[in-house]
Amino acid sequence: MQKTITLAHGSGGEAYRELVKEVFLPAYSNDILSPLTDSAICAAGEKIAMTTDSYVVKPLFFPGGDIGRLCVSGTVNDLAVSGAYPKYLSVGMIIEAGFEMEKLVRIVKSIAMTAKEAGVTIVTGDTKVVEGGSADSIFINTAGIGVFTEDRKPLPQKIVPGDKIIISGYMASHGMAIMAARENMGFTPPIGSDVAPIATLVNRVLQNGCKISAMRDPTRGGVAATLCEWVTPNTDIAIYDSMLPVRPDVSAACEILGMDPLYIANEGIMLLSVPAPYAEEALVSLHSVNLGKNAAIIGEVKEGDGNVYAVTDYRTKRKIIMPQGEILPRIC
Amino acid sequence: MKMKMKTKIQELQKGIEELAKNMGQITIMEVCGTHTTSIHKYGIRELLPDNIKLVSGPGCPVCVTAQEDIAVAVSIAQQEDVIFTCFGDMMRVPCGDKSLYSLYETGKDIRIVTSPLDALRIAQDNPNKQVVYFGIGFETTAPLTAALIEATDEYGVQNLSIYSAHKTMPQALRQLLKNGSSIDALICPGHVATIIGANAFSFVPEELLMPATVAGFGAYEIMAALFSIIHMLRKSQKSCINMYPNAVTEHGNQEALSLLYKVFEPCNALWRGMGEIKESGLGIRESFGKFDAAQRFEFSIDEIEEAKGCICSSILCGKSKPTDCANFGRACTPSKPLGACMVSSEGSCAAYFRYGRYKARQ
Fold it and tell me: Mutating which of B5, B6, B48 best tests the A interface, going by the most A Cβ atoms within 10 A?
């Protein structure tokens, strides 16, 4: 196998077939993909969830993960928080000629491993190669399909006054990990991203019929963006500073750099809005999974006027707004 | 520990309320961008009685950088084979329809650095380019730029120069708070004080005849500083008290000051919204003149007007509030700032926009 990706690898001919046979098929290995037909034929029931995301993260490899792990987790998580079981993924790549084969193999292995962890099958894909300078190393698009069943219906995705806001784990880890890696900040030990598929967390919460008003994975724009997207003209969302879980190293980095963890991207947690009677049950379910061991109730939904705010330890209020502009580019 | 802090803040809240009773309107100004943000972030105003008004002064170095300086930066950054470096918060400051960020989007080589010394490394890595560092900030950051210039000289690096728009506080405070200002007391900039020392602010009680405190940045530290001020006002005591002794000494950081004035000298400077203030800038000394980007590059800039309806000059002096401005939150927002006070996250308008606007008060 050649040491670098060339334009020939993207042109559909012999080199392309060799790439598929030597790199993609062995890694993704499943019966839907192996016939290599133009479309994957999959069983999906009456109602499906479908999502797509493109990944241009820089750097490609960072503490805690890489673009491979990210491109599966990000798409799987969007499906999972809709209430669907994530099932199938497509992987489309645009690769710059000259990209090292060894790096591609690493990324593909990471995709395969994360897909297995998430319980999803890579059923189809595409690879294009462009001239050097026309793309930055590698861009990946993944589209995903999830299925609903009798016991798993789409969630209302509407918060209700009285709901408790629950977070499934530490926040701001991914954004700070990327920033630290990109800017060579030299934190010791390096700040690790939280990138992970959260389908198991969702399964655990929903399996006992726990009622959930809304679920979302707070990626770009952080927890703040999700809360601002959720709030409606007749509700307020109050969260409590003392209840927000942030890893100590992430908290310290945020303080040094003057950043607010609420606005920093996450890739391995979810936010839930849960009717009060079910909040404790949801929390116990989250705690029973390793990924959810730091889950916490962080606030509540009240009747109001569309404000989102944080309450400080000494009972003053701090408004939370939709993030303006781009805090850090190419974070996912 | 946390419970103790909460109790201390609540005790200070009660103490301030007691002291301030029957004292009439009290107006206190802070002149540090980080104080502006902290006061908003911690909701300090909610802890104070109605007769105490906190106003923000020109303490945000990004906000007070003159448009003329931004225009020069933009002009240099556009030139061939230039790598332009600056801190992140300078990127979006608008100058007409351009900004360093808009140039970056069109492919110009503009890089955010987290330390001025990064510019030296970039210059060494790119010997065929001219690297320029945009020096912005008060006495807190200027010594770092001085260190950069000294290191550039020591290493004999030829392709790096610095454009200094650094400013110093004392002269600006004198101009702002002289006779006739409505300010009763001053919260002095804590980070600047770590460099220039608490004694550097003794002119505030002595010349400007008002009490002052050097304050830290947590909720407790700010409340403690306010308590100290109200106490002094009640007793008509005119002193400057250092309430940030963990970081600020009487005489400051002598080593930093020595390096600063080895490389820089006071000069007149243009402050956005305030005009020219004598001896309030830091210019590169002749002995280091070869590293002055203003001498190394040719540039021409057009005359620049403030945006229509902009009242930043009044807000910077504490005479108006952000909500007094017709542009606030409409034509002027953090993503499309028209005036100085909105451009940086530490400006009064940006801080108020960020933390202070509620759709309906409870």
Answer: B6
